[in-house]
Input
Amino acid sequence: MRVTVIRNPVAGGAHTWPATARALAEIFPGYSLVETVKGMTGPQVRAAVTPETDLVLAVGGDGTVGQAVDGLLTSLYPQTAFAFLPGGTGADFSRNFDWPATTERQLQAIAMATPRRIDVGVLQSRVGGGAVKTTHFINVASTGVSGEIVAAIEANRGPSRLPAFLRYRLMSLVRIARYKGAALRISVDGRRVYDGAVLVAAVTNGGWFGAGVRAAPQALLDDGRLDLVFAHHCGAIGNLKIFAAFANGSHANLSAIKTHRGQVIDIEPHGKIPMAEADGEVIKPGALRFSILPQALTVRLPPAVAAG
Output
């Protein structure tokens, strides 16, 4: 099998790379390696994929995985199979799969997996009358306080005494408590479902979001639909209660949290334009349209975790 490995050298888990490289050489001998440069993962993948490539294998966090998928699907060979190794700070997309415990066994599971097809999200962003920016997302794209959290994490990368996961949660708490809400009009398949102040609106292909929160437990990667989860803005105390409910899995019981499913979801800000993100990477904010590409990506991965 001819494998191209796309590695983010600064992602969480970089210290384990020597052992990962040895396992890769044993299971996928002769693999080629591309080390990503910030902001260039998509173009690097497009340049690396050839007619002879059997598998693109990403090593990094959710952002690396999402950008690698975008690069693959916009390459000349979008039918090439895709896989990844779990890693990064949040590792939310990896939670959708039943992974073995060790890197060696994870790579063996990829090598032995039967290729199958899963859905991919498409996000189009337009500011005013400007050009539309289009990107693919594999797990989740969102707007509201989540965009601010991702932007803050990106701005504060670097050495820290705190573990990355704890730093993420602390930044989340601070920004949620201070957030003033975003005025959004939200429509699902052409039907208006909400018009008002929002804490966060997440459109998911997978089930997990925000470093381990199973925000959309019914989400499936191959059902041809997107899951929308949004929370009303409820003031500082109310927003922190919403955060706690997401964290402990009880958010389905809160009246301030709404869920919908559909194929096309439109989120239009009126007033100040909130930040937005896709697979943990900041994107240009604006009027957002989310749509689904059913069965667009061939993957070699372990079995999916059951919904519910």
Notes: The chain has a mean pLDDT of 91.
